[in-house]
Each structure stands twice: as structure tokens, then as C-alpha cells.
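Comment thread on ticket #2218

A.B. wrote:
> Attaching the input chain for the structure job we discussed in standup.
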Amino acid sequence: MERNREAEYRIGVSDLSGSLGSAIRTKGCLLLFCLQGRAIVSANLERRVFRRGDIAVIFPDTLFVVHGTGGDFRVRLIEISSALTDEVILPLSSVFFERIYNQPILPTTGEERILSETWNAHIDHCAQCSAAKSARMMIRNQLQNLFLAMEVKLVFDAPPGNIESIPSSRRLFNCFCKLVTENCYSQHEVKFYADKLCITPYYLSKITARITEATPKQLIDWQIVMEIKHLLTSTDMTIKEIANMFHFDSTSYLGRYFRRHTGMTPSGFRQNNT
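C.D. wrote:
> Ran it. Output below, let me know if you need it in another format.
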């Protein structure tokens, strides 16, 4: 069951079957609480296992893809608007955002799992409030408490050290991921991203191989394909319009590119997934 109060927040339970293989997008913030089962996901280009009790935190710059699920996988989802997100994250430090981008899936201990269940029960109670203004304020406060607790866990309770303790290769990889997310529509070559990072393509390839066992070009192509899939399934844009958006020379070039990476034509993928 899903609740929606003036498009400010959305609360529900899902198996995410409708999102398999495509990037999960949000304009504000999306929280996924794994209730049961497990899923193989990619979070910011890294493959991870999303297990019962884990919490995924997805912001607009997070690339999150569910590749497969098992064990009757189900999540509780809470999505909030960009305006409400801005209010919720206001007191958080920049260190928190660096850490959460690096670790968008948070495991929980047994005690933390119980606290998470209690927190979700409070959210449900807040959402049922008949006074819209009061409901919004209570949900904002509950979300802010959750994020502050995450900040304590990721920043203050972390091993001694500050943000500089994150290896430089990891920070470069995070910057690469963000650059790809922002520029993949027009920039498809490794050199562009290496130049932006002020490193050589060879050094960038060493970083991506160490962290993901993939080449920079594979990661760029993967992001492009995810974006094309998203447009094919969530918009009515024509294949020609999508080709133009990604600066492909023609629709036939886009077709060959997409088929090489997915085994399907763009029109075939759209027909099977809409």
C-alpha cells in the first residue's frame, strides 16, 4: 500500500520487479529498507549485495540498479521531494555526503534493525495524520533524526580519521562516477573524463580495475545504456530524439550500439518493458 501527500512523500512496499536492469531515479531522496530476501545491485558503478536489514540511500547523483533478486525480495520505500530533502539534509556535514556516496548501502546490526522497524512505524503514524501541515513536519523531523543517526554511524563512530582517510584512488573514482552521470549524454570517451580529473587514461583504468574490475570505457557505456533504458521505458521520446540527445550520428548507430550491449534493439526493449 502506498501513501502520497501532495507529492511531498511516497511510502510503500515493492519487490522492485518493474525496475530490474534499469537505473532507479529520484529527484529528491529515496530510502530503501530491505525487508526480506536479497538483491544483486550496482550502486555508483560497484556491484553489491543488498540484504535483509540493509538501508539504501539514493540521491539524484546516485546510480542505483537492481540486477536480480531472490528469496522473495521486498523493500519498504520512502521517497521525498527535492524541497523536503533540502530541509532534511540541512544540518548534515559535507563529510557525511562524501561517506554516503562512497557507501550508499548501510548494513544494520540486530539492535539497529529493531530501531529501524520502530522508526518506520513512527513514519506510518505520522503519514496517517489528518492535518497535512503537521504530517509533513513530523515526517521531516523523523527523516532528519534518521539522517543524523546515519551521520553519527558513518562519521563520528567511524574509525579515527577524517575525510582525508578515504584513499585518493577512491575519491578519484567517486569523482569519475559523478562526471559520468553528469556528462554521459554528450561525452562518451575516456580521455574527456581523465582530463577532467587531471590524470592519464591509463591511471584512470588502473583505478577502475582495482575497484570494479571494469575499464573506464565499460563503465561509461554501462551508464549510457542505463540512461537509454530509462528514457525508453519512462518517456515517449522517439528513437531519433534519444539518438540526438546522446549525440549519436544516426538512429541506426544508436541501434547497433544498444544491441551490442543488450542483445536487443531499442524498439524491442521498449516493447518488452512498457
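A.B. wrote:
> Thanks. Noting for the ticket: The first strand starts at residue 3 and ends at 4.
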